[in-house]
Design brief:
Aldehyde Dehydrogenase, Chain A, domain 2; 7-stranded mixed β-sheet
Length: 472
């Protein structure tokens, strides 16, 4: 087993205690990583703060940051194959998807590198004897807590705009799946960023994570993860009035109209709920089907789910394991609760007889008030139900505390757009789940959080507007 370190102030740092990383496809130990301490967290925050105070990142000509960002993108691409194998083994995802994460991370650095020298303020007319203008200034020290489901790409989507706009960053990686992020930071070492601009810690969220978000040096918090953890972080943020970006859970619904193309629906269901074993905040976890098409599409969805090949992501499979034994137990418990509430398990609902932490692709008929239709499962579990008319569908889709994404399938332009504008969520897909990209703003409402990642809009979460008014 390889042993990995934390990265503080431009140096790789070991620790006295280690965390063990498990391969979820085999349930066997894969690697160890240094377990960061409170002292490590303080050192990382001090390094980031000194970087901010020194201006090595924020006060250089923005075009220089653009060069560093583009260097980072190329370095990430160069390490993508090696990093993908590590990410596949620690996280359970397919080797193809793991490499895509690194390539997506590189794309984030390219995209926001192109914006580094375009954060332009405005001139405000106040009359003859005044000059008034605005500037965008970096927040300062950005603490970013990264989840385990897409650690490399989610880290890059917040790290890239933060660096492009001149912030120093302290990252807390997930203890379940931290090693791919080590490779990401190794690539960034070659880019030219100053010491202290990027720091990486792997430690327990209850100690190191909690210490970081309540630290006196923190100027911004960026969190992606569960609702309960996000709520705890927001309490700490409120105490210091720390600006935050929160991307929390989802229970997203797709509405299938009576004229929908069944092939588009089935392809999107396959990607929407079974990709990455359903461990996606924006997964298509509910499928609402017009009653005239319900039986037809239900049969097709069940047949597709039953055809999926289950196994390790190192091989050609359709469904990989969930990330941990704890996650497997949680998913199976929610399925069992659904049974007790009267839901109908159409297929799946069990752990296959395989080494590792697998859950069979599961399709469940349920009513809108059942817990399985209200709570985030974070596993390969799809809930299906019919609806009578469009308003009924919208009411069901909007009938949870979440509001991350939603979707509509239908061939009529007017009906799909009219429904899309009624759906509660930060992003709505029409006729293809995950139709957006790096260029499209992403974030939620309600218990799904606030603030936006991705797209041009995201970079403005990492700056504050300063107004300068001059009396001539």
């Amino acid at each position: 087993m390889k042993h990995y370190l934390n990265y503080i102030d431009g140096q790789w740092v070991d620790a006295e205690q280690y965390l063990t990383v498990i391969n979820p496809a085999t349930a066997m130990a894969y690697a160890t990583i240094a377990s960061a301490t409170i002292k490590d967290a303080d050192n990382a925050m001090q390094a980031a703060s000194l970087c901010v105070q020194g201006g090595e990142l924020s006060q250089v000509r923005p075009a220089i940051r653009t060069t560093w960002m583009l260097n980072a993108a190329q370095a990430i691409r160069d390490i993508a194959d090696e990093g993908a194998l590590v990410l596949c083994r620690e996280n359970g995802k397919s080797i193809i998807d793991a490499k895509d994460e690194f390539l997506e991370a590189a794309r984030y650095f390219e995209y926001y590198g192109g914006m580094a020298d375009k954060l332009e303020g405005t001139s405000i007319p106040l009359g003859k004897n005044y000059i008034d203008f605005t500037q965008y200034v970096p927040m300062g020290v950005s603490v970013q807590i990264v989840p385990w489901n897409f650690p490399v790409s989610i880290c890059a989507r917040s790290l890239a705009p933060a660096l492009a706009s001149g912030n120093a960053v302290v990252i807390k990686s997930p203890e379940i799946s931290p090693v791919g992020m080590v490779y990401l930071i190794k690539a960034l070492q070659k880019a030219g960023f100053p010491k202290g601009a990027v720091n990486l810690l792997c430690g327990k969220g209850s100690t190191v994570g909690s210490h970081l978000v309540s630290h006196k040096e923190v100027d911004q918090i960026v969190f992606t993860g569960s609702v309960p953890t996000g709520q705890r972080i927001l309490k700490d943020a409120a105490a210091r009035a720390t600006p935050s970006v929160m991307e929390l859970g989802g229970k997203s619904a797709a509405i299938v109209l009576n004229d929908a193309d069944i092939h588009k629906v089935i392809n999107s269901v396959r990607a929407g709920i079974f990709f990455n074993a359903g461990q996606v905040c924006s997964a298509m976890s509910r499928l609402l089907i017009h009653q005239s098409r319900y039986q037809e599409i239900k049969n097709a969805v069940v047949a597709m789910a039953q055809s999926l090949v289950i196994g390790s992501g190192e091989h050609q499979v359709d469904l990989t394991p969930v990330v941990s034994k704890e996650q497997q137990t949680s998913v199976l418990a929610m399925i069992e609760q659904a049974k007790q509430e009267g839901a109908n398990i159409l297929t799946g609902g069990f752990a296959p007889d395989l080494p590792g932490y697998f859950v069979a692709p599961t399709v469940i008929e349920a009513t809108a008030d059942m817990s399985i239709a209200q709570q985030e499962v974070f596993g390969p579990v799809l809930v299906m139900m019919p609806f009578e008319d469009e308003q009924h569908a919208v009411d069901i889709a909007n009938g949870t505390e979440f509001g991350l994404v939603a979707g509509v399938f239908g061939e009529g332009l007017n009906p799909t757009l009219q429904i899309a504008q009624q759906l509660r969520g930060g992003q709505v897909f029409i006729n293809e789940w995950f139709a957006g990209g790096i260029e499209t703003p992403f974030g939620g409402v309600g218990l799904s959080g606030f603030g936006r990642e991705k797209g041009q809009e995201a970079i403005y979460s990492y700056v504050q507007t300063r107004n300068i008014a001059v009396r001539l």
